[in-house]
Amino acid sequence: MTQPVRASETPENRVVPFPAGASETSRATPDAPLDVRSEQIRLLREHPSLIVFNLVNALLVFVVLWRIFPHQLLMGWYALFAIIIPARLILSHVSRQRGWPTATVARLGVAGSAATGAAWGLLAWPILTIPGLTYPVFIIFVLGGMTAGAVLLDAAYLPAFVAFVLPILAPASIAFAIRGDEASLAMGLMLVAFTIVQAVVGWRANRWIVDTLRLQAQRENLTADLYRTTAELTRREAILRIMANHDQLTGLFNRYYLLETLERELARASRLQVSVAVAILDIDHFKDYNDHFGHEAGDEVLRTTAAMLKDAVRSTDIVCRYGGEEFLIVFLDSAAVTAIPRVDQICQDIRQRVYLYRGSAMPSVTMSVGVAEFPQHGRSVDALIRAADRALYAAKKAGRDCIEVFS
Question: pLDDT tens digit string along 320-372?
Fold first, then answer.
């Protein structure tokens, strides 16, 4: 007893599957393009060890001022650095380990820079209270070095740079102005000029870093776009190859592919002096079948028949949909006498097949077949197919559901 074949009613099974689109290949795309602000924050915390220099320089100031400045105030001032710098290092490490959001890291970076700058800004008090200019000039030298270093450490993110430099230089400039003597006022004006220069240098350094990051982001965007475009072009090229060589309904090779390939195979067979058999198979009374059961049912019969033909032949043979309800099989390196038993078995299998479509049984179909052989019945593609077609006409004239060989 034959097993019925249930006709699939899903639209996906009615067409040849095409290569996946861009959405299905997104996992193969390059990494997402960088975010400029995130890169700024990454550069801001890229060398946390440089923050330690604040402790070193603060210790130097501590030692120099120890003899002339109140010890308790000096120790309290250095204790601020002993608290702020380790806290910044710990937060930088934790933010890396836990992957904190960019906005949070940015706020912490600005707050850390501001706290460190404010601690340095407290040196305005020694400038204001220590007589003479020797020690104030030393302090200004240290503060100038710290702000110059900020160009390297904090200029990647401008808010952090401003938060560090402004609390350092502004109090010192005000302290010199309060001292009031001519030399102090000159030092204050020089410090203001230095502050302006530092601001310009920091701003230019920041612009250079941001522009570089934007160029890098644009390059990565272009690379990603190029990758996606190349992948899409490759996919479309594959689709075009499928469409050019395959029948969309059945998935078999189409007539164009057959004519192109058969010409090469006949040339090869001629060189090797071997035979090639061609069989044209036509579903009997297929128009009546369509009229009675509908074109969707007829399409299902075509798809199922195509699958049976493909499974029944060797991988080296060629099966194509020749047109309408006609199929053509090329039996390579086979004579007609060898091909006929195989074609006969195919016809028997198709004759025994029962279909179910939308819950209703449909009758089986039969096939008429015409067979021709190269080079006996034709030495060219056209001649060989014409001979097989005439044999097919003879099979239909003989009552259908039979096989005829060209003679």
Answer: 999 999 999 999 999 999 999 999 999 999 999 887 777 777 888 999 999 99
Domain count along the chain: 2
Range of 388's domain?
Answer: 255-405
Residues whose CB is less than 8 angstroms from the CB of residue 87 and which lie 6 or more positions away in sequence, other chains included = 112
- Which pair of tokens denotes residue 116? 């460190």
pTM passes above 0.70:
no
Strands (E), 249-344: 276-283, 318-323, 326-331
Write the CB contacts of 136 (distance below 8 Å, at least 6 apart in sequence): 126, 127, 130, 176, 184, 187
What CATH number corresponds to the domain at position 370?
A: 3.30.70.270
pLDDT band at 400 (very low <50, low <70, confident <90, very high): very high
Instruction: State the pLDDT at residue 263.
Output: 94
Judgement on whether residues 161 and 202 belong to the same structural domain of the protein: yes
Q: Looking at the structure, tell me whether residues 92 and 148 fall in a common domain.
A: yes
Residue 171, CA distances (Å) to 117, 120, 185, 394 in order = 11, 10, 14, 110
Considering the domain architecture, whether residues 43 and 183 belong to the same structural domain is answered as: yes
Asked if 284 and 380 sit in the same domain, the reply is yes
